[in-house]
């Protein structure tokens, strides 16, 4: 919300450039990373793909909404395009190996990396934005989905595109279960045997009270369902964070070996 031009430049101009380059190379197949933020404050729960979009509460969501509208116009005008837009809910977790995870670079980053930094003692408290929402414990409710389930959703989308001409299709990717911020913290503390002090502050501009997905369409048409629990999301992220307490190594050199023309 504080840097709107940066988001518009990266997301909107980046997508325009990408689409033009794709078309110039006769590449018309795309899986787009959209977001549940296109729904705005929900009119009903759980949220289906037919839920109205456009009443967006933040800049990030508006960029995703504008791109979806752009893709609608493009796929209607040029029938060669074959696009699936995946509306992510709230991805968390890390690869179970502990080798791949989210490397936060911002002062206020996503919830789970911030939480893990507090558990490690690198930050003093977890800042929770709002404890006066109309929810059972006063904190916002989200549909947290493991990044591995999200990755599998992309594979399922690619398989559908490879076998069918769909034009433009939209799917929710979520577990269908709402979990509050406080509930997530409690699970994280339990499975990692850590303590996370909380500091409640005012709500952030653009934050939503509660949202979770109805992912029935993805199940029926993509053959996709989530497999990971909220406990596994926390455990896998904690494994990544403890193996990489300072994130990815900085200023490392990468060696690329070329053999028989392949890298």
TrEMBL record:
Catalytic activity entry: UDP-N-acetyl-alpha-D-glucosamine = UDP-N-acetyl-alpha-D-galactosamine
Gene3D superfamilies, sorted: NAD(P)-binding Rossmann-like Domain, UDP-galactose 4-epimerase, domain 1
GO MF, any single term: UDP-glucose 4-epimerase activity
Signal peptide positions on this chain: none
GO CC terms of this entry: cytosol
Record SUPFAM superfamilies: NAD(P)-binding Rossmann-fold domains
InterPro entries: NAD(P)-bd_dom, NAD(P)-bd_dom_sf, UDP_G4E
Keywords assigned: Carbohydrate metabolism, Galactose metabolism, Isomerase, NAD
NCBIfam families, per database record: galE
EC category: isomerase
Enzyme nomenclature, EC number: 5.1.3.7
Positions of the NAD(P)-binding domain: 2-236
Role this protein plays: Catalyzes two distinct but analogous reactions: the reversible epimerization of UDP-glucose to UDP-galactose and the reversible epimerization of UDP-N-acetylglucosamine to UDP-N-acetylgalactosamine. The reaction with UDP-Gal plays a critical role in the Leloir pathway of galactose catabolism in which galactose is converted to the glycolytic intermediate glucose 6-phosphate. It contributes to the catabolism of dietary galactose and enables the endogenous biosynthesis of both UDP-Gal and UDP-GalNAc when exogenous sources are limited.
Single GO biological process annotation from the record: galactose catabolic process via UDP-galactose, Leloir pathway
Alphabetized Pfam families for the sequence: GDP_Man_Dehyd (PF16363)
Name of the protein this chain belongs to: UDP-N-acetylglucosamine 4-epimerase
Superkingdom in the source lineage: Eukaryota
Cofactor: NAD(+)
Organism: Papilio xuthus (Asian swallowtail butterfly)
């Amino acid at each position: 919300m504080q840097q709107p031009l940066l988001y518009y430049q990266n997301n909107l101009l980046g997508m325009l450039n990408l689409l033009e380059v794709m078309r110039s190379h006769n590449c018309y197949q795309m899986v787009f990373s959209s977001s549940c933020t296109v729904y705005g404050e929900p009119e009903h729960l759980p949220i289906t793909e037919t839920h109205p979009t456009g009443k967006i509460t933040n800049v990030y969501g508006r960029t995703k909404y504008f791109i979806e509208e752009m893709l609608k116009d493009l796929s209607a005008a040029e029938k060669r395009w074959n696009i699936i837009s995946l509306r992510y809910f709230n991805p968390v977790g890390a690869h179970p190996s502990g080798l791949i995870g989210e490397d936060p670079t911002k002062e206020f980053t996503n919830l789970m990396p911030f939480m893990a930094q507090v558990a490690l003692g690198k930050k003093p408290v977890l800042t929770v934005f709002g404890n006066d929402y109309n929810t059972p414990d006063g904190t916002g409710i989200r549909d947290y989905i493991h990044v591995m389930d999200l990755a599998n959703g992309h594979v399922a989308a690619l398989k559908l595109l490879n076998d069918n001409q769909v034009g433009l299709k939209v799917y929710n990717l979520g577990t269908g279960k709402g979990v509050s911020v406080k509930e997530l913290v409690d699970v994280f503390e339990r499975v990692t045997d850590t303590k996370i002090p909380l500091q409640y502050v005012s709500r952030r501009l653009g934050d939503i009270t509660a949202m979770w997905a109805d992912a029935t369409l993805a199940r029926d048409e993509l053959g996709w369902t989530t497999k990971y629990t909220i406990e596994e999301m926390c455990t896998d992220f904690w494994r990544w964070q403890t193996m990489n307490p300072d994130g990815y190594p900085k200023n490392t050199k990468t060696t690329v070996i070329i053999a028989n023309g392949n890298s």
